[in-house]
Write a structure and sequence with these properties.
The complex is a heterodimer of chains A (104) and B (168). Chain A has helices at 31-43, 48-72; strands at 2-3, 14-28, 45-46, 76-88, 91-103. With 104 residues, chain A is an alpha+beta fold. Chain A has two helices and five strands, in the order ββαβαββ. Chain A starts with a strand and ends with a strand. Chain A has a four-stranded mixed sheet with strand order 1-4-5-2. The longest helix of chain A is centred in the middle third of the chain and has 25 residues, at 48-72. Chain B has 168 residues and is an alpha+beta fold. Helix content of chain B is 43%, strand content 24%. Chain B has three helices and four strands; from the N terminus they run αββααββ. Chain B has a four-stranded mixed sheet. The chains are: A alpha+beta (104), B alpha+beta (168). The interface between A and B is large, with 41 and 50 residues. β3 (45-46) of chain A pairs antiparallel with β2 (56-70) of chain B.
């Protein structure tokens, strides 16, 4: 599965459109990680617990989106966009969407 | 009596502690960023959606880099004071700048590790994480995500097309 955030796949041509594909996930870290992040929040700087949380969640959202695209028979997803929203304390919804296409 | 005064004493201690450690950590981070940026300068990142038409592209892939960063307690306190009088909240400006630079470096690092030399259509998004706990002031952190399409260009990455492709 080729994934890109451009209108076309660079170096290839689109032969067929399959429509919008989406993938989303809501994730939270366990309490220990939240407490660690809370302590780090005092001194500032990176909160690696949350960086990891969001990176993993985004990877999962992309995986779900790719599954949906491959079920449709697509071999690429173009114009991928991301959206993040925080639904609850310490939890985040990651949403990825794009257009499933066939490229050659 | 002493227990009632404890919260009053704790706040200045926390502010002082945050001021001292936060400043040190920030300076160290800026030094690291400078070095890392120097290391990743071979990867060209551009915000153009379409690469120049004469580039021959071998393969492509979505790459991203992200970071969640938070402001120290002292600076959050200063910012809340500043919010009363208005104006530029300068203590927040370096924070976001650091986060963006870090995210770009990580994105370039991923592209480099996977054998790409250029990233096109780079986008940078910022979002706020929900608070992990504690009081309602401020945020638990700001997430900056940089993403783009990494491409491998065969041959030279010249900006100007070869003379043959230019219309007279």
């Amino acid at each position: 599965m080729i994934i890109s955030n451009t209108q076309t796949v660079p170096g290839k041509t689109i032969t067929e459109f399959y429509g919008v594909v989406t993938g989303s996930t809501v994730r939270a870290k366990h309490l220990g990680r939240d407490i660690m992040a809370g302590l780090r929040n005092m001194v500032g700087g990176e909160l690696p617990e949350y960086t990891e949380l969001l990176t993993d969640a985004r990877a999962e959202a992309i995986r779900r989106m790719s599954h949906q695209a491959s079920d449709m028979g697509a071999n690429a997803i173009v114009n991928v966009r991301f959206a993040t929203s925080s639904v609850a304390q310490g939890a985040a919804e990651l949403f990825a969407y794009g257009t499933a296409v066939r490229v050659e | 009596m002493i227990y009632e005064l404890l919260p009053l004493l704790l706040t200045p201690v926390l502010l002082l502690g945050a001021w001292a450690t936060g400043g040190v950590l920030e300076r160290r981070n800026l030094k690291d960023l400078h070095l890392l940026e120097h290391g990743s300068r071979d990867i060209l990142a551009i915000t153009l959606e379409d690469p120049p038409a004469h580039w021959e592209i071998d393969r492509c892939e979505l790459v991203m880099g992200s970071v969640v960063i938070s402001q120290d307690y002292f600076k959050r306190f200063v910012a809340s004071l500043k919010g009363v009088v208005g104006g530029n909240i300068t203590v927040f400006e370096p924070l976001l700048e650091r986060a963006r630079r870090e995210a770009l470096i990580r994105m370039k690092g991923v592209a480099h590790a996977r054998g790409y030399d250029t990233i096109i259509n780079v986008r940078i998004e910022t979002s706020t994480m929900a608070r992990a706990g504690g009081n309602a002031k401020g945020t638990a952190g700001v997430e900056v995500l940089a993403f783009g399409t990494a491409i491998r260009v065969v041959g030279e990455r010249s900006v100007l097309p070869s003379p043959a492709t230019v219309a007279p």
